[in-house]
Each structure stands twice: as C-alpha cells, then as structure tokens.
TrEMBL record:
Coiled-coil blocks: none
Alphabetized InterPro entries for the sequence: Homeodomain-like_sf (IPR009057), HTH_AraC (IPR018060), Tscrpt_reg_HTH_AraC_N (IPR009594)
All residue ranges annotated as the HTH araC/xylS-type domain in the record: 196-294
Keywords: Transcription, Transcription regulation
Organism in which the protein naturally occurs: Phyllobacterium brassicacearum
Gene Ontology MF term list: DNA-binding transcription factor activity; sequence-specific DNA binding
Record-given protein name: AraC family transcriptional regulator CmrA
Gene3D superfamilies linked to this entry: Homeodomain-like (1.10.10.60)
PROSITE patterns: HTH_ARAC_FAMILY_2
Alphabetical list of PANTHER family matching this protein: ARAC-FAMILY TRANSCRIPTIONAL REGULATOR, TRANSCRIPTIONAL REGULATORY PROTEIN
Any Pfam family hit: HTH_18
Superkingdom as given in the UniProt entry: Bacteria
Amino acid sequence: MEGFSVIDRLAAILAKYAEKDGATATEIPRVHTLRSTQPTEPIHILHQPAVCFVAQGRKQTLLADEVYFYEPPQFLIVSVDLPIVGQVVEASEDKPYLCLRLDLDPAVISEVITEVPPSALRSSPPARGIDISTAPAELLDAVVRLVSLLDAERDSDRKVLAPLIEREILYRLLMGDQAARLQQIAYAESKLSQIGKAVAMIKSNYSRLIRVDDVAAHVNMSVSSFHQHFRTVTSMSPLQYQKQIRLQEARKLMLAQSLDAATAGFMVGYESPSQFSREYSRLFGLSPRRDVDKLRNLPDFV
C-alpha cells in the first residue's frame, strides 16, 4: 500500500472517531484522537511521553526557543515530560487537522526490547526529549491496523489484538531513527531515565524551593553532569523547568477551581502576587484573568 493511501485511510478513521475538537480518548488503551477544524492559537501543555502520527493538516510545537513543524507522513515523539507550546497551523472544516497519539509505556517498551537481538539495537548519547521523523509505510500500516480496531464489533478483538499491534509499532520504532529515545525510556539506568526521575521529583515538588544539588543527588549524578544532561533533554535549566510547571499548574487551578490569581500563585509557590502575574503574563502572553477567561472557550488538547 502506498504511503499516501495509508495516510488517507488513517485520516478517514480518525475523522470518524474524533468526536470533537481537542483530544479524545478511545476504547484502545493509551490511544487518543486529536482534531481541530481550524488553526489554533498557541496552547501550553505538559506533554507526556508519546508518539503522535499526523494524518491531516499541519502543526508546530515549541520547546523553549526551538520550533518543530510536522505534517503527514511525519510523527512527533516525546520521550520525557516536557512543557511545550503546540499550535495547529493548517486546518479547516473541510479538512481538519487529524492526529493519533499513542502514549508510551516504559514497561511495554522493555518487553519488546527483550525480544530484539542486541546487535539490532542502536545506541547513542542522550538527546533532546522531542523529535520529528518521517514514518515509513510499514509503521503507518501498523498504526492504521491499530486504529482500525475501533471498528471491530467484538470487544475481544481490541483486547487481544491491540496489545499485539502496539508492540509491532514499538518494534518498528526501535528499528528506525528513534530507537535510542525508546531504549532510553525503557532502561532504568539510562541518562534519559535519570533525567525522567529528576523531572518527576521537580513535578511532585513544584511548589517548594528546590536545590539543584539535591535533585542531582537523587538521580545519582554530579551537579555539572546533571545540568548538562537536563538541558540537553529539556532545552532548559531545572529551575526554568520548575517555573513552567508552576505556572501551568496555577493555570489549571484557576480554570478548575475558579481561583483568583493571588491564591493560585500562592498555592504553586509564589510569595509575591505581582511577580506571579508578571511571570504568568510573560509565559502565556496575557494577564492571569484575561488568559483564563479566554481558555474557557477553547478545546482541550491534553
């Protein structure tokens, strides 16, 4: 099957099951559809490890000052929790942006790796935790077969076949350009895994004052090595990462609990309301109140 015909089939299935603009969970574990019927404004999210296959339209993702554009038949891979800014740049009512997101499970990746001969696996030093690749026809075919299970009449088809096809997708990713990123997700002692543990520590303590020395010790790295690898993977320093997490969490609190900016800022670790409002406006482009009012009318892409 030619690459574009595979993409057309993927787009047709996603159009059928993407019920609304934004992200929609499917009956297949870890699989979501994403749709937008118009270009979007920049959307700040904390993107978890996943691979996103674009079937229609075009999108850009920003990590710090780096821009990643992707369109069919490309896919985006994220190997560690990253605060990014996503923006659909090509979409319409007649031809919406359509994407399939498969969340990456380290345990499943590890199982697949154990069945691959070590000589077939690639290895490389830690790299940025986000990248774009072009999907070969064999990989796209597996993705289409996975999402086609949404049409299955028997639940048992999805229960039995979906895990098998997910493993095939991971296998084909391991045999391609993104092998190193997948391996690093799975290996407990990899540098990416250590940075992942540091990210988890910062996320769980985002409202507290953290010392980089303590985080480095927690993941068994020297401070200099930790700084270097953290910036390599996330494109920012640990304190810059914590600031973005704080501001995104404050945004969620104001949306979900209708908190005022001062209260939300205090809850995420800010002592000065003016500093919180200043840094919030710098990141999101609007004051906290104006930004939250605007967000209430936007689809959820998380």
